[in-house]
Amino acid sequence: MGRVSNLYLFFYNSAQAIGWAIALFRISVDFLSTKSVNGAYASAGELICILQKLAFIEVLHGAIGIVPSGFLFPLLQWAGRTHFLLAIVRGIDEVQELPAVFITFVAWCFIEIIRYPFYALSCVGNCPSFLTYLRYTVFIVIYPAGVAGEMWTMYKSLQVIKDKHIYADYFASIPFSYYTFVKAVLICYPFLWLQLYLYLFKQRRSKLRPHNEKEKKRK
Predict the structure, then answer these.
(1) Where is the chain membrane-spanning (predicted)?
(2) Which of 150, 49, 48, 51 is nearest to 95 (CA)?
């Protein structure tokens, strides 16, 4: 079963890597042809929505134990990104052409075209050291850029949400509005993201330090 699950995970992560590479290609082609950052959603938004929906499978991977991450942390990450993508970007036309969406999508694409190949090759025990280094290094710059793009997009959406009473029907039986909910998310976002960011630094030390120590011994 271990061999079968590793093969399945290899194909799943490879498919996600290809999908995110296509998304980045589409965004790049649109940017180069139009010299504008306004077309990120139009060029790749629907594909990114599909890839993000499919990523719920990763929560199930943790729940059934075929990956060691558990399900709670992946669920929270998936829910946060999915809310931003489907409820804010896809659901509010006025924010789709913001430069912040371009920044966010490009950051996501770069992270995922490194993360998914890393997972895929790790499943078959053939992950090169440079990919491991990129997996635990690129986030240092890319994650803050992505989070800044997400927060900027949500902030710009607030006035539209307030003026158009967006999702008011869904919040009718709740003692607060969607506008208030997004404001609360914006307040909590930096603190929740910081925990993830520091956790990734901890992972980086544990994953890269043994390699560095071996190199020192060889010298």
Answers:
(1) 6-25, 100-121, 133-155, 175-200
(2) 150
> Do you know the residue count of the chain?
219
Cα distances (angstroms) measured from residue 47 to each of 44, 52, 113? 5, 9, 14
Write the pLDDT tens digit of every residue in 150-209: 999 999 999 999 999 999 999 988 999 999 999 999 999 999 889 889 988 998 998 887
For 63-113, how does the pLDDT look when each residue is reduced to its tens digit (9 = 90+)? 998 988 888 888 988 999 999 999 999 999 999 999 999 999 999 999 999
For residue 50, the tally of other CB atoms under 10 A from its CB is 12
Extract the tokens encoding 174.
Answer: 């709740």
pTM of the shown model: 0.91
Q: How far is 125 from 121, CA to CA, in rounded Å?
A: 6
The gap between the terminal CA atoms of the chain, to the nearest Å, is 41
Residue carrying the six token digits 């071996």: 214
What is d(CA 80, CA 156) in angstroms, rounded to the nearest whole number? Answer: 17
**What sign for the dihedral angle of Cα 77, 81, 83, 86?**
negative
Cα 136 to chain center, whole Å?
Answer: 15
Nearest-10 crossing angle of helices 2-34, 40-54:
170
Which pair of structure tokens corresponds to residue 85?
A: 């993508």
